[in-house]
Amino acid sequence: MAADPFSRTPRRRFLARLGQAWDEVRALTTASPARFAVLVFVILILLFTALFSLPAASADGHGTPLADALFTAVSTICVTGLSTVDMYAHWSPFGHVLTYIGVNVGALGVLTLASILGLVISKRLGLRAKLIAAGDSNPLRAHGGPVNEGQTVRLGEVGQLLATVALSTLVIEAALAILLYPSLLWAGVNPLVALWEAPYYAAMAFTNTGFAPNEGGLVPFADDYFLLTVLMAGVFLGSIGFPVIFTLWRHQWHVRHWSLHAKLTIITTILLFVVGAGVFLLLEHSNPKTFGSMDAWDTTFQSFFLSAMTRSGGFSVVDMGDFYGSSLVVGSMLMFVGGGSASTAGGIKVTTLAVLALAVISEAKGRPSVQAFGRRIPSDVQRVALSVVAWGATIVALSTITITQITGAHVEDVLFDVISGFATVGLSTGLTARLPDPAIYVMALTMFMGRVGTVTLAAAVAATSRSQLYSLPVERPIVG
After folding, report:
1. Is residue 59 part of a domain?
2. What keyword terms does UniProt attach to this protein (predicted)?
3. I need a labelling partner for 34 at 20 to 30 A (CA). Which of 84, 215, 303, 455 fits?
4. Is residue 349 within 8 Å of residue 338, measured between CB atoms?
C-alpha cells in the first residue's frame, strides 16, 4: 500500500521547524555565548522547578508549592544556598539527590559544561566550542573581533582548562569527602549515612552553596575544628576560580609565571579573609549571643570561619540574626565582593575590586595607566569592572526596596539577605524563610541576576567596544 504523501507533510514541517530552531540556537551560541548561557540557565531552572514540584521530591509525598519549588531550583542552579523551606526535613531522598546534582551542574557553568560534553562526544574541540568555553572563563572573550591584550586563558589553552575544570571538580570533591568521612563518624553519624553526607558536604563546600544534609546543619559540629577547616578549604578552592586552579596546576609555586589574574585573585582573597576575620573578632568579641560566650581560641577560629563563609561559602555555626548590626554590614560588604571570576562563588568578584582599587591608586599617583606586577591593565577591563559594580549595586538597591515594601521588615535584615542572594552566598538572618510569595519571586530573580547578570553585562560591554576612526571634541564635566 502506497504511503499517503500528505500524511508526511505535518511531520516534515515539524522537522523543518525543529531544524530551523536548532540553527538559531547554534547561531546564538556563536554570536553571544553569554545570552546562550542565560537561555540554558532558564531552561535548567524550569526543569528543576518541575522536578522539585513532584510529590516524589518532598518527604510528605505532597507536591511542593510553585513559589518554594521555583526558589529552591534557582537557589540550587545558581549555587546560592538560601531556602524558603527546611532543606533537611522538607525534601525526600530524591529531592536531596536533585539538589546535589543541581549544584554541581550550576557550579561548573553552563558554557563550560556544554563544552565538556561536546569534547567528550566529538573527541575534539572546534573553534566555535573554544570561543564558547572561553566566554565562560572570561566574558571579555565572548565578543567577536580581535583581542589584542594578553588573556588569562588563551584560546589554545581552552581544552586544557576544560580538562582542569572536570578533573579538579572530581578530585577536590572526592578528597574533601574522604577527609570529612572520619569526622562524621567521630561525631556519631551512622557509617552508611556518612557515606552520603560526606560527598554532599564536599559538594556544598566546593560549589560554595552551603546546604546541609542533616538536621541542625553545622551546629552539631561547632566544636569539630578539623571538619570546619576542611569545609573552609573546600570553599577557598571553589572560590578562587578554575582559571586560577589551572594556573596553579601548570606553574605550581613558580609565582613569576603566574598570570596577573591569578596573582590579583589570590592576594585579594587572602587579604579580605584576614581583614574580615579581624573585624568580626573586634566587633563580636563582647556579644554574648555570638562570640562573647567563647574562649579566645574559639572566638578567633569562628571569626576566620565566618570571614570565609561570607565570601560565598554559606555555612554558619552561629545564627546570623544574633550578630550586631555593624557585623551584618561588614558581612554584607564581604558578600558583595564575593570570590574569584569564573569560580563557583558569586558577588562582583575579587578581581573587580582589585582593578578598581588599582585604578584609584594609579589616579592618586598620577600614573597614565593602571599597572600591577609589571603589566598594564587596559581601559576596557576597567570599564567592565566599574559597570559590574554599578549593575550589582542597582540590583541590590531595587530588590531591597521592593522586598522591604512588600514585607515591612527591617531594612538591615532585608539588605543582608538580598546581598546574600545576589552574591549567591546563602547566609540569612532568618528573613528569607518567612518571605511571602511575591517577595520570594523577587528574591529568586535577584539570585538569578546575581549569577548570570554580571556576566551578561560584561559581555555586552565588551561587545560594544569598536574601533573609531575619529575623535570628538573634549569637554570635562565637574566630577566630585
Report:
1. yes
2. Cell membrane, Ion transport, Membrane, Transmembrane, Transmembrane helix, Transport
3. 84
4. yes
Report yes or no on 476 lying in a domain: no
Segment 215-234 mean pLDDT? 91
Contact 97, 124 (CB under 8 A): no
Is 469 within a domain?
no
- Give the tens place of pLDDT for each residue, 8-26: 566 677 666 766 665 565 5
CB 133 within 8 A of CB 30: no
In a domain, 14, yes or no: no
> Shortest CA distance to 206 belongs to which of 131, 100, 283?
100
Q: How many CB atoms lie within 10 A of CB 87?
A: 21
Domain with 214 in it: 28-143+154-463
Mean pLDDT of the chain: 82
Cell readout for 292 is: 562573647
Say how many domains are in the chain.
1
